[in-house]
Amino acid sequence: MKHFAVIGNPIAHSLSPIMHQAAIQDLQLDAIYTRKKLSKESFDREIRDLLLSDLDGFNVTIPFKERILPYLDEVDSFAKKCGAVNTVVRRQNKWIGYNTDGRGFLEGLTEKRPLKDSDHVLIIGAGGASKGIYLALKEAYNGEVTVANRTLSKAEEMLEQRSKDRAITLTEAANKLSQFTIIIQTTAVGLNPENSDLPLALDLLSPGTLVSDIIYNPFETHFLQEAKKRGAITQNGLAMFVNQGALAFKLWTGENPNRAVMRQAVLDSFEEE
Ligand code: ATR
């Protein structure tokens, strides 16, 4: 039996086990997917033990996506550019790191509508998630990307050198919001449903803009609610979550899992809460 897992801290509320178990069952594979909490303080010892165990592959989530890199035998070039790994595969007894977050996001976005080179994309935020999405966009699309961040220097550092892309402040982005046809929200601002702050004001949003938030819990952030009120086409982070998982699943098993089955398993678990 193959054994897959997700490691992180905290990990109790991760929906990855439910989602991957659904895919395993659907394909009738002889496999299991579990969760493992690793200690932040003893990460060095615990990750070494894990790599000596019988695992066949695992996902890595917060806060270990960067810390895992030096323990792996190889890191693929895209994950290296991201500086972060979310998927680890055992191949011929070597541990190889990948990052499926950005490409998973992009798959989800293009399920909504295909990208056009005339699109003008705004990414809000310049953290780890933003970087993966930015790099995946750069692989797939020739148009312009603008990154807006509270700390401008972090957005500047993220951009590829010699590209025509731009780094701007959140205020500047709000002031020219009508120029963008796709807006991707990657900051943590919407994570707390009690807090109705927006990362930036949406007054100048054009109706018909595609607005995507990588958060799916809460299911619809204040940011998406406000965007919808202003006539945007909106998408939450569930598509990214499902697609990053499906890409990881393919790396481990070689099989293309049924994304609709994975998505439904996550939705069902929300309803049970
Ligand atoms: P992740 O890996 O999830 O992207 P991260 O690397 O900690 O997380 O990045 C968090 C992002 O959210 C950053 O862009 C951060 O802005 P700064 O670079 O200025 O810190 C952004 N962010 C967090 N809280 C914010 C807030 N209250 N207002 C605006 N941006 C915020």
TrEMBL record:
Pfam families hit by this protein: SDH_C (PF18317), Shikimate_DH (PF01488), Shikimate_dh_N (PF08501)
Positions of the Quinate/shikimate 5-dehydrogenase/glutamyl-tRNA reductase domain: 118-188
EC numbers: 1.1.1.25
Active site (UniProt): 65 (proton acceptor)
Keywords of the record: Amino-acid biosynthesis, Aromatic amino acid biosynthesis, NADP, Oxidoreductase
GO biological-process terms attached to the record: amino acid biosynthetic process; aromatic amino acid family biosynthetic process; chorismate biosynthetic process; shikimate metabolic process
Keyword NADP applies: yes
A GO cellular component annotation in the UniProt record: cytosol
UniProt source species: Listeria kieliensis
Record-linked HAMAP family: Shikimate_DH_AroE
Residues binding shikimate: 14-16, 61, 86, 101, 216, 244
Domain Shikimate dehydrogenase substrate binding N-terminal residue range list: 6-88
Name of the protein described by the UniProt record: Shikimate dehydrogenase (NADP(+))
Domain of life according to the entry: Bacteria
